[in-house]
Design brief:
By secondary structure, the chain is an alpha/beta fold. The chain is about 40% helix and about 20% strand. It has 3 domains: about 220 residues, Aldehyde Dehydrogenase, Chain A, domain 1 (3-Layer(aba) Sandwich), CATH 3.40.605.10; about 200 residues, Aldehyde Dehydrogenase, Chain A, domain 2 (3-Layer(aba) Sandwich), CATH 3.40.309.10; about 40 residues, no CATH class. The longest helix has 26 residues. Bound molecules: adenosine-5'-diphosphate.
Length: about 500
């Protein structure tokens, strides 16, 4: 039976298109085709593979406006954000990979210790095989395409399953791959929901790269563990945003508003807990309220905040806000949930007077909600920031850069931005990934290419000698080895003793 994925514009409710799901029976075929394509793709020179990424970049650049419109329609995000936060980072990732992949993945000569005298050592990078990429709906282009191209560069073939919540973008990505002219089956896109995702996960990929919820991440990791399939998991966050009294207050407040409300807060690294030093708390609150109330909600080019993308997420946000208000939180800006309409727009919310037992304080909200909490000391705020199951990103705001580095050093987080928010993800030279429930592994940077390859250790001997000292027979060698190692590993190497024992062993 063919199932259809309905693409609906969440901001307007308009039906956009029907996209055919990939049938379960096709999963086996996808893997077969991917393995067949791997035979040739993996043997191409890396420069040839990178040529395809350059072509993909051209396709994206030529169709940039249309691509932005597809993202806007499918997610409800505003056009500027589609361009700045989804398309641009993808293009920048292509640039960085095209520029550096050849060097990063070329064989590396490493040192060979004296005990292995006469040999040479190398590390080589070998593609893993077929990589499964499962991606989410909040940045449906970037979070799908960046792992795909990173895997392709290393010589893997890829099966991508984009989110069923944004199927139009998934379809458009597939069309862009087709326009690029990748060799047949090097990159295949499977459309569908969690059942298709689950079938693909069980289909024996050589690597799984997953971005999504903690709940699904755990399921995937369990399946992968049974088959010993390596994974990267990019999961959620509850990022702390720490403002000290000596910060540039205006900048920190504007940064908080952007960090909390960009993409309607549907960002794994959005500012979800704003900690403000007590002495500036009231001032900060006032500026943040003023800045928030200036924001324009809508869908056009001048809008600041779009709609929520996924109806279920709106319900989670509603639940968090209700829970907080029922437990005594104060609504500083925005409207109470009982006044929300049926649309997918949520007016940005600022909450004060928060307590630790409120869900909005400890659980990921993934919506346009900014809880603001006062703190007294550096130690206290570091403790609170780290008292979370998550650890994806964090930010520290202060004019004392020494203090900033000190605090950043103590935060259990995959990234920290200082007097900035979110942008660490936009520098492809930096690693990206989380600690604790925020995930396993890193991508972007050199690491983002290496994870898709086996690191192969090569040791080379010209093969001229007939034997090695550690080979059989052992007769009469124990004492000489004892002297060899004692002289070699001694605090001050005893070279004469070393040489004598070595020559003795050679003669045995
Ligand atoms: P989100 O709420 O951010 O979409 P999910 O974890 O539900 O997070 O979904 C992220 C991606 O994982 C989507 O592409 C979805 O279809 C896929 N997915 C969901 N459940 C499973 C599963 N059990 N196995 C494999 N993929 C899944």
């Amino acid at each position: 039976m063919m199932t259809i994925l309905e693409a609906v514009n969440p901001a307007t409710g308009e039906h956009l298109d029907d996209i055919q799901e990939t049938a379960f029976e096709e999963v086996e075929l996808y893997y077969h085709q991917a393995r067949t394509a791997f035979e040739k793709w993996s043997t191409l020179a890396i420069s040839e593979r990178l040529n395809y990424l350059t072509k993909l970049r051209s396709v994206m650049v030529e169709n940039m406006d249309q691509l932005a419109q597809v993202i806007v329609q499918d997610t409800g995000k505003v056009p500027t954000e589609a361009l700045v936060a989804d398309i641009m980072p993808t293009l920048d990732a292509i640039n960085t990979i095209v520029k550096h992949a050849e060097k990063i993945l070329s064989p590396k000569r490493v040192k060979t210790p004296l005990l292995l005298i006469g040999k040479k050592s190398y590390v080589e990078y070998m593609p893993r095989g077929v990589v499964l990429v499962i991606s989410p709906w909040n940045y449906p282009l970037q979070l799908a395409v960046v792992p795909v191209i990173s895997a392709l560069a290393g010589g893997n073939t890829v099966i991508l399953k984009p989110s069923e919540v944004t199927p139009l973008v998934g379809k458009y990505i597939e069309e862009m791959f087709q326009k690029t002219g990748f060799p047949k089956d090097v990159i295949q896109v499977a459309h569908g929901g969690k059942e298709v995702g689950a079938a693909l996960t069980k289909g024996n990929p050589d690597y799984i790269f997953f971005t999504g919820s903690v709940r699904t991440g755990r399921i995937i990791q369990e399946v992968a563990a049974k088959k010993l399939i390596p994974t990267t998991l990019e999961l959620g966050g509850k990022d702390p945003f720490i403002v000290f009294q000596d910060a540039n207050l205006k900048r920190a407040a504007k940064g908080a508003v952007w960090g909390a409300f960009t993409n309607s807060g549907q960002v794994c690294m959005s500012a979800e807990r704003i900690y403000v030093e007590e002495s500036i708390y009231d001032d900060f609150l006032n500026i943040v309220k003023e800045e928030t109330e200036k924001l324009i909600q809508g869908t056009n080019e001048d809008s600041d905040i779009g709609s929520m993308t996924f109806p279920k997420q709106k319900e989670i946000v509603k639940h968090h806000v209700k829970d907080a208000l029922e437990k005594g939180a104060v609504l500083v800006s925005g409207s109470p949930p009982e006044n929300w309409d049926d649309s997918m727009f949520i007016q940005p919310i600022i909450l004060a007077n928060l307590k630790q037992d409120m869900e909005v304080v400890w659980d990921e909200t993934f919506g346009p909600v900014m809880p603001i909490i006062p703190f007294k000391t550096e130690e206290e705020v570091i403790k609170w920031a780290n008292e979370s199951n998550y650890g994806l990103n964090a930010s520290v705001w202060t004019s004392d850069l020494k203090k900033a580095r000190r605090v950043a050093g103590k935060l259990v987080s995959g990234a920290v931005t200082i007097n900035e928010v979110l942008v660490s993800v936009a520098n492809h030279y930096l690693p990206f990934g989380g600690t604790k429930d925020s995930g396993i592994g890193r991508y972007h940077s050199d690491e983002g290419l290496k994870i898709f390859c086996h690191e192969k250790a090569i040791i080379l001997d010209k093969g001229k000698l007939n034997k090695e000292i550690q080979w059989y027979p052992y007769k009469g060698k124990y004492a000489a080895f004892l002297k060899l190692f004692q002289s070699y590993f001694h605090e001050r190497k005893k070279w004469i003793q070393f040489l004598r024992s070595y020559l003795k062993l050679l003669k045995k």
